[in-house]
Amino acid sequence: HGVSVDQLLRRVELVLKNCRDIRRLGSAALDICWVACGRIDAYYETTQVWDMAAGILIAREAGAATGHLGTIPESWNRAAELYAHQLLVSKPGVFEAFQTLLR
What we know:
Oligomer: single chain
Number of helices: 4
Strand order of the largest sheet: 1-3-2
Structural class: alpha+beta
Distance between the termini: 14 Å
Strand content: 5-15%
């Protein structure tokens, strides 16, 4: 499930080199809603399902792309939409670019 500190630092470096800035509001649901309303282009994080589920629903309804940076383990016996590890949410058209950049 987890991502190493080295992987996290690598991702931050890649985003800073390829994007304008990194924003964190302190709430996964709020960050994801900012993607939904177009205030930010993408959100990636490992979180808990209760921290992201409402935001994911809002983002999908608004047309955002949602998925993961990694694969969902076979041992996960719940809906893939509720898998909160290595979550990626983005505005349409940039999901694959972010996924490729951050893998």
